[in-house]
Amino acid sequence: MNGERPPRRVLIVRHAQAEREPPGGGPDKERPLSDHGEHEARLAGGRLQARGIILDLIVSSPATRAAGTARLLAKRLRYDAEAIQYELAIYNASRTTLLELLSDTDDGNSCVALVGHNPGLSELAATLSADPVAGLPTCGIIGLVLPQLQDWASLRPNTGKLEFTDFGRTTPT
Fold it and tell me: Which of 29, 112, 126, 142 is deepest in the core (most CB within 10 A)?
């Protein structure tokens, strides 16, 4: 590979399906994954594994449903769940906040998964991609390659190329 670094990639992952109510009527952030959500997150992890995805970093919202999704993906991808970084700023974040968060990523990380919530994640994907992208359903994944990006601090709108979508309910591209 003549010393060249692989292109940077970002996987934008919406949390899997959650229960409608948090246990005991607690705050929205405490809504756990439903049984179906746990199942769909495991399946999504398997599809990422089949694609040969190797993550350098998972950054997740600390909300119970997002953190659960991140842990299930990590397990399937043989990523140390203890290394998941939880960022409160992802919960209900705007695309601007998410873009800033990605821009602060350590340059030693080539492939990063960002696990969180809509509408911010769908807006981030649309902002980063030079290609049209659909909104993210639960446990939907948009994979973008950033071929010209030398460092994460240089991340700008329209610098990504759509590599794949995986919406679980439909055939992945």
Answer: 142
